[in-house]
Design brief:
alpha+beta; five-stranded antiparallel β-sheet; 5 helices; 5 strands; globular
């Protein structure tokens, strides 16, 4: 309900603030200080994670979710790289994905069925005023729907790039 009402404590509002702050940070905007170890151009990525914090006890988990947990820990679900002009566009796509809307959201709900809960990891890069995101999803344990608590975090990852 908080997301629908666009409440300041909704996951959508919190995500938007965190993503905006991370993308506007000096650490993300500047080139990493790793020229001495990169043979190619260094790059900064925002690593953005979203996951529920309260799960159903194992005895209440569906077999589908238990097997999906094991499978996607080894090989996460991946979505094609997406391109966005703004953080708002990116956040809208993430919300659509997580709520089963749009082509990617419908595919996610097909791949992560039952009452299994996805845990998201997004790698966000910026090139020439565009944001590019690669997505990995662990589909597994069902969250306890009595709790609306999520762990949402951002960090900066510096790495060597082939571009």
């Amino acid at each position: 309900m908080k997301n629908i009402a666009e409440h300041p404590d909704s996951i959508r509002a919190v995500a938007s603030r965190l993503l905006s702050k991370a993308v506007q940070s000096r650490e993300f905007k500047e080139l990493p200080k790793c020229d001495h170890i990169c043979s190619s151009r260094p790059q900064s990525d925002v690593v953005y994670r979203v996951q529920p914090t309260v799960f159903l006890p194992e005895r209440k988990q569906q077999a589908l979710c238990l097997s999906s947990e094991k499978r996607t820990k080894l090989k996460p679900l991946r979505f094609d790289k997406k391109e966005f002009n703004t953080v708002e566009e990116l956040n809208t796509w993430i919300m659509d994905l997580s709520q089963g809307r749009g082509a990617d959201g419908k595919l996610l709900y097909k791949l992560c069925g039952g009452n299994c809960s996805p845990r998201y990891q997004f790698y966000i890069a910026k090139r020439m005023d565009k944001l590019f995101v690669e997505t990995e999803i662990l589909c597994g344990l069902a969250r306890d729907r009595k709790s609306d608590q999520y762990a949402v975090s951002t960090s900066i990852r510096w790495q060597c790039s082939d571009n």
